[in-house]
């Protein structure tokens, strides 16, 4: 797959001399348009995005910031995390360059994560620019958010091209919400979900990390929530990351959750799953919404993984649970060409392992806290 250098190349020298926040508005203006090469060709995944197990990676998750306005217990260590200096984070120009480059190689879905992506002052402008990639191969532009600062921004984000929204919400109890997030704001989160539904977003999902003895008793409440709400509630098995004090006793296997729900609502209807889905989809018969289970710990889905991650400080991470990373930020700031970046990306993808380690080995391995990876 060829690269149109006049389209993909962006000037970095002046932007890199300024700090992260001072470059945001200027960096957006530096990019005249977002056109991908080979518009008349069939959109396929290039060799650089295919690993040694023939997994085609057409889904890119970009962390926009390490900052967050919540302190969720499973994501943020109690003592906090040292934040990367602003000038060592990807600036807007660099994010857009990488997004265009990956789309030119066959990426069809981009998800914006954090930290909390809505704390970026330029989030609306960034989404608008990324949304233009839908004219050139990108099929879906998604965001994962905690919802705290989202509601007022949503209309502009949707207009800019955002079509999929995942909102992190682990409880329907305002008091427990404050305990789990170490902050107030329950009504703001539910208000953001309601606004997304009102705007007619085609994909509105709720991500619920289930921990035994903390919020597992609310599974039935979330199932009931789908009766009149056209959203997809996804129960996520508790996963180990640095600083979140994971232990097996807190893990609730998805089959146990299913048993609890079916004991109340009867047999769930199995829905179709896509080839690369991380979620097992179900529905309570007659309900508007759906229920899903993300089974990273008890039934991994490594064999069909199509995801790559870029951290806020510019590292490519080919596996959520892997600790091998390569800095694309450094390569760009050293003046590497797009061909050279693709060789680096391809080499990283080729080193992706067949599957991640078992849960106990993962718990003992060194990895970033979730907030520094990107949810």
Automatic annotation (TrEMBL):
One Pfam family in the UniProt entry: Mob_synth_C
Any single GO BP term: Mo-molybdopterin cofactor biosynthetic process
CDD domains per record: Radical_SAM, Twitch_MoaA
Domain Radical SAM core, first and last residues per copy: 52-268
Enzyme type, top EC level: lyase
Family: In the C-terminal section; belongs to the MoaC family. In the N-terminal section; belongs to the radical SAM superfamily. MoaA family.
Annotated keywords: 4Fe-4S, GTP-binding, Iron, Iron-sulfur, Lyase, Metal-binding, Molybdenum cofactor biosynthesis, Nucleotide-binding, S-adenosyl-L-methionine
Protein name as catalogued: Molybdenum cofactor biosynthesis protein 1
